[in-house]
Amino acid sequence: MDMIINEFEEKKRQFLNYIETEKNLALNTCRAYKIDLEQFSQFWNTAQERRQRDLTFQEAVVAYNVSISSKKIDKRSVARKLSALSSLVKFLKKNGIEFDVKFERPSIEKKALHFLKDEDITFLVEQLPTEKLLTHRPARDRAILELLYSTGIRCSEVVEIKIQDIDWNARTILIQSKRKKSRVVEFGIRASFQLREYIKNERIKDQDGIDEGYLFLNNRCQKLTTRSIQRICEMFEKFLEQGKMITPHILRHSFAINMLSQGMDIKRVEELLGLKTLAITKQYDLKPQETI
Question: Which of 5, 108, 204, 270 sits in a 20 to 30 Å window from 131, CA-based?
Fold first, then answer.
């Protein structure tokens, strides 16, 4: 079977709706799929104008594959763009529409991924002098860093935490997710101390502001943005040894590595991370009992 671009636009809309409402993929993932598929649509339209005739889906895919592979585009970006098309084709196949289309993805070398050890976080959270931190909320920023490392939660989940979501006795946080199933994560004694220090010394000053109960607030008594969390990580990164990096994603990786190295069951790590499959074990070739 084949289809023209008008039919593709309708199928694309159905596919994007499917991954958002039924598959419950993350907003950033859905956004990336949408951008990649829209770029393909633009290419398809342009190619038809140049050739002055309609192109079938198969013809457009072949031309697109050649086009992006010949440009100076990162191989991972090429693979991602083709993956978006491949996922759409699989979606159509499930709905009884099959295409004889082949996607020739570029070979990608395994990328060296970064992770932090407990001594790195200990230095930043407990040993680094407060006066060196370029922030008006050092207790808040230390608490965020420790929480990211000790729970493995996403940057987007940190900003949504409300004080009422914390069970101080059990040292757990209910992570409320708009698209995924809510889950409970655990935090340790050090995280508990950092959180209490923040609430007692900084958060209490915002009680009269418009905070809506969110745990982490900015100077205007509003919840932090994900970009604010990223900036906090960038601030701490400057105090690490050269070559070491901190991002919310690296801290998430570090949590998983730490839990696996301590022998935690992979399925349990999956649950704490809120994942269906634990791709990180393949990326690091790390076995559960392996030490770091």
Answer: 204
Q: In 182-240, which residue ranges form alpha helices assigned H by DSSP?
A: 189-201, 226-237
CATH 1.10.443.10 occupies which residues in the chain?
Answer: 118-284
Contact 241, 263 (CB under 8 A): no
Task: Name the β-bridge partners of 186.
Answer: 172
Q: Please give the full DSSP string across 168-182, using - where no structure is assigned.
A: TTTTEEEE--SSS--
Entry pTM: 0.62
> Among 188-192, 221-225, 255-259, whose mean pLDDT is lowest?
255-259
CATH architecture of 5-94: Orthogonal Bundle (1.10)
| Sign of the dihedral through C-alpha 53, 57, 61, 62 | negative
Tens of pLDDT, residue by residue over 138-160, are: 999 999 999 999 999 999 999 99
Count the neighbouring beta carbons within 10 Å of the beta carbon of residue 204: 9
* Token reading at 105: 């993805």
Nearest to 29 by CA among 89, 9, 281, 37: 37
**Biggest alpha carbon–alpha carbon distance for the chain:** 70
Task: With beta carbons less than 8 A apart as the criterion, state whether 64 and 32 touch.
Answer: no
What are 251-271's pLDDT values in tens digits?
988 888 888 777 777 888 877
- Which residues of the chain does CATH 1.10.150 include? 5-94
Amino acid at site 76? R
Say which DSSP state 205 is in. G
Nearest to 89 by CA among 22, 33, 46, 27: 33
What confidence score (pLDDT) does residue 142 get?
96
Phi, psi of 56 (to 5 degrees): -75, 170
CATH superfamily of 118-284: Intergrase catalytic core (1.10.443.10)
Lateral strand order in the sheet of 172-175 = 166-167, 172-175, 183-186
For residue 230, count other CB atoms closer than 10 A to its CB.
Answer: 15
